[in-house]
């Protein structure tokens, strides 16, 4: 595969999870895997969250750029 010419496309997605930043990333990638073929890599662009009424973190929101190889 390496050394072979190929083209990638990058799209932005947002993962949300209550447990952790990692869980939000995994949630986003799992969903992306269902609709995009040949996922290759991701970049975390932004991390933010929601604070619940108790003052604790209620959920994490992670913006990712995900790349996938275009069919040739």
Folded structure, characterized:
The chain is α+β, with helices and mostly antiparallel strands. The chain has one domain (8-69): Flavin-binding protein dodecin (Dodecin subunit-like, 2-Layer Sandwich), CATH 3.30.1660.10. 21% of the residues lie in helices and 50% in strands. A hairpin with a 5-residue loop joins strand 2 (39-51) and strand 3. The longest helix is centred in the middle third of the chain and has 15 residues, at 21-35. The protein is elongated and about 55 Å long.
Could you write a compact summary of the structure shown?
By secondary structure, this protein is of the alpha+beta class. It has one helix at 21-35, and strands at residues 8-17, 39-51, 57-69. Helix content is 21%, strand content 50%.
CATH topology: Dodecin subunit-like
Count of domain modules: 1
Portion of residues within helices: 10-25%
Computed CA radius of gyration, to the nearest angstrom:
15 Å
Strand content: over 45%
Supply the key terms:
single chain; 72 residues; alpha+beta; Dodecin subunit-like; 3-stranded antiparallel sheet; 1 helix; 50% strand; elongated
